[in-house]
Amino acid sequence: MISFELNGLQVQVEEGSTLLEAAKFFGFPIPTLCHMDGLEPYGACRLCVVEIGEGSKAKLVTSCTYRAEEGLKVRTSSERVVKARKMIIELLLASTPQSKVIQDLAAEHHVMQQRFRQEHEDCILCGLCVRMCKEQMVAGAIGFRGRGENRSIGTPFDMKSEQCRLCGGCMYVCPVCTLRCTFNDPDRAVCGGCANLAAPCVEEEKFHDLMCYMSPCVACEIVEYEKEKQTKIEG
Amino acid sequence: MNSELIREIVDRNEANNNGLISTMEEIQSKFGYLPREALEKVAEKTNRSLVDIYGVATFYRAFSLEPRGEHLVSACLGTACHVRGASLVANEIGKQLGIEPGETTQDDKFTFETVNCLGACALGPVVVVDGHYFSQVNTSTVSDILKKSVEGFDKVEVATDERIFPIEVSCPRCNHSLMAPDHQMDGYPSIWITHSYGLKHGWLRMSSLYGSYKSEAEYDIPENQVINFFCPHCHTELIGAADCTECGTQMIPMIVRGGGTVQVCPRKGCKGHILDL
């Protein structure tokens, strides 16, 4: 057992547990975005920052990846932590304002506006879908590609992956993908992950009596509508 | 696509416990780019998912997924080069080749790319063509550089280049001269020895110019084949104690007239050598 100080409270946790796990166990809430039980911690969203150490040595670390140490002094909601979290939420709002998850986070932390150039990205590169695909679905169909501002998530060569079983797990965990699939119109697609998946309705010869996991995505209805429109024009 | 060669490269790197990047570097150096089949083969052989390999290939600028031209022209656009007019140089290169940065000419001769810093800021603006650095380039010297790259940089003038000089060698065992004055290479007597690999056994001639890697052999020696060298006079095998600095193969010693030894690597295609005068 390791004993350390959590918000002034002397606590004991098992060796190897992270600060996030400890805080959750002792009832101190820490917001998370890229963390999910059952997936390897990744530390990408930085939302779970906590302050460790004292005085001039105090620093912010991501609690999801930092393991508890003997005698550590952890503060989960100090002024510095709250300020950093608000900044991160503002930055997330600046890139993906349409996400319900991020909107809720902003409301919860009383972030009412953001002061950066407004963008409408479709991905925050949190890596949840990549880890889901690799660790839980054992497929490894999607992953990170490129680097810097060209970093994106998708399949190799942007082609439909042979490893993909259309499980939809990537869409299920995506915090940005709230509108579900508009996949037959990739320009409007919200998460982009699905642009590389084929929905069951498109492969309907194969899956015609399957219950659609994308419901209520209405992609199939759009396809039908487009087809009808086409036949009307041709007729 | 030579899938046999890809498999050979992947297997050898796996056997040597080499990392993913060195495997991919070797494929890139053989093909000039990373073909899709090669990445699939690497993924299959190393038990990684294809997307992991693809992620590495797209992460590093050194890897290319598109076939590249014969010559790679990199223009530095780093801060030091930029203030000395590197963007003008880059524009000029693009104009003369008729392509944008990142593209390859139609005839597959040139690939042009811009890089952010080559670490040779004092020499700026820097242009690198096939690993040859050109310093203080301006728009008027661009055409010269491109012309030179087509002619080939390895063509050097023996008379004026100090790094290249002829050597005379003899057998370290019987001290007989290994020179063949009647058979000249690069304008100088060649080194004559016998070689063998597998069941093949025949003569081999090497250029005596230090810095030239020309050789002729009775049989075609496959790339990467390690061959045994013998003295044509006393028939002892020439084998030394030193290992090649490039590939680790045991090197071939010869005595240099005037004092000293030269050791060469017996692996075909390897340029490892030690000259000790």
Most extensive protein-chain contact, per-chain counts: A-B, 15 and 12 residues
Portion of residues within helices of chain A: 25-40%
Please tell me what the overall shape of chain A is.
elongated
Helix-residue proportion of chain B: 25-40%
CA-atom Rg of chain A in angstroms: 21 Å
Mean pLDDT figure of chain B: 85
> Within the largest sheet of chain A, what's the order of strands?
2-1-5-3-4
Biggest sheet of chain B, in brief?
Answer: 6 strands, antiparallel
Structural class of chain A: alpha+beta
Structure description:
The complex is a heterodimer of chains A (235) and B (277). Chain A is of the alpha+beta class and 235 residues long. Chain A has 2 domains: 2-108, Ubiquitin-like (UB roll); 128-234, no CATH class. In chain A, 29% of the residues lie in helices and 11% in strands. In chain A, α2 runs antiparallel to α3 (100-108). The relative contact order of chain A is 0.10. With 277 residues, chain B is an alpha+beta fold. Chain B has 7 helices and 17 strands. The longest helix of chain B has 13 residues, at 3-15. The chains are: A alpha+beta (235), B alpha+beta (277). The A-B interface holds A 134, 139-147, 155-157, 161, 163 and B 36, 39, 48-55, 58-59.
